[in-house]
Design brief:
Layout: E1 2-8, E2 11-17, H1 31-45, H2 62-71, E3 93-94, H3 95-123
Parallel strand pairs: 1-3
Antiparallel strand pairs: 1-2
Length: 124
């Protein structure tokens, strides 16, 4: 699955695509919402016996993880858990940056055209 950051209707949204490129989640307003949706989706796909009672991993709290690593001399080499849902997610496809750059360029062109037309009209 791939996390997409996009600009839709003048707002930044996140959504998930499957391996075929089909959108499988709703448009989510925040990165944290996208992460939570992904974890719930992955847990729902698992068909075996689930020992965890919560989808939230205690190691996701950065400050707590740092305290545990610093206070325990035999701290884990891997600060994240073994499951893929324990590892932080990242944006795989960033469409928002490209669209913002296009909007900025269009706005700049419109600004210059407007100012040029106003100056030309004043001279007439």
């Amino acid at each position: 699955m791939y996390l997409v950051k996009d600009l839709i209707d003048c707002r930044i949204v996140f959504y998930w695509l499957d391996d075929a490129g089909i959108q499988v989640s709703a448009e989510l307003p925040t990165f944290q919402d996208a992460e939570e949706w992904w974890k719930i989706h992955i847990f729902a796909q698992y068909e075996g016996f689930e020992r965890r009672k919560s989808i939230v991993d205690r190691r996701t709290d950065f400050e707590k993880r740092q305290r545990m690593d610093n206070s325990h001399r035999f701290a884990s080499i891997n600060p994240y858990g073994r499951r893929m849902t324990d590892r932080p997610i990242k944006v795989d496809i960033d469409l928002a940056t490209e669209k913002l750059a296009e909007l900025t360029a269009e706005k700049r062109i419109l600004y210059y055209l407007t100012n040029y037309t106003l100056r030309a009209n004043r001279r007439l």
